[in-house]
Amino acid sequence: GAGARGHQVSPNYIYGAVPYTAPRRIVITALNLATGDIAPDEPFTDTEIAGNLHMDGFPEAGVPFRLEVPKVVLSKDYSQLDIGEYSLQFGGFEGEGSIGGSLGEPLALKGDIDTNDFDLRALLTSVGIEAPKTTDPKALGKVELAATWRLEGGAMVIDPLTLTLDDTRFTGTFARGAGEDPVGDFTLRGDN
To answer: How many angstroms separate the CA atoms of 188 and 8, rounded?
Structure first.
């Protein structure tokens, strides 16, 4: 099968296509926030946030989003977080997973995410980003992700990582160190 090992990506390259420092106006319409009873020292339950997100380049109707979290446990001192499960929808993207860990210094969170197969070209277009030019105009039409991740003190590890791009399934890991100029390291193996 196809494989890649030891490829490095700097954060400037990852974010280089979209100027992430440029100020942008964000508008949310049709906002709906629902939650169960809120009581001191009790978990938040049955929380849902939904609406339409509007930014420059988005369609006039906006991009619909929804976040559902059945239970959030936050310690009294706000130092520990436990989201046993969540589901997220943004346009044609859907994901579910969990998040937990320490919110102090250093930040230490871990979790997992599993997505639907979504059309990356359509998702990028819906948020005003031109999809990359490819030889095959159908490329990036089916993307799916399953990952277990850990973020600790600015460093990030994704292991295991399963990424499906069209007809190819990649498995492997990703690691990025902490510090001033971190570098990402992918180890991927493809089946096609």
So the answer is: 12
Please give the order of strands across the beta sheet that includes 27-34: 3-9, 184-190, 168-176, 155-165, 143-152, 108-115, 93-102, 80-90, 63-74, 44-54, 27-34
How high does pLDDT run on average in the chain? Answer: 87
pTM equals 0.79
Residue % of the chain over a pLDDT of 90: 65
Q: What pLDDT sits at residue 4?
A: 42
Rounded distance between C-alpha atoms, residue 90 and residue 139, angstroms: 21
Q: Tell me the mean pLDDT in the region 152-181.
A: 94
Query: Rg (Cα) of the chain, in Å, rounded?
Result: 19
Whether residue 7 is predicted with pLDDT greater than 90 in this model: the reply is no
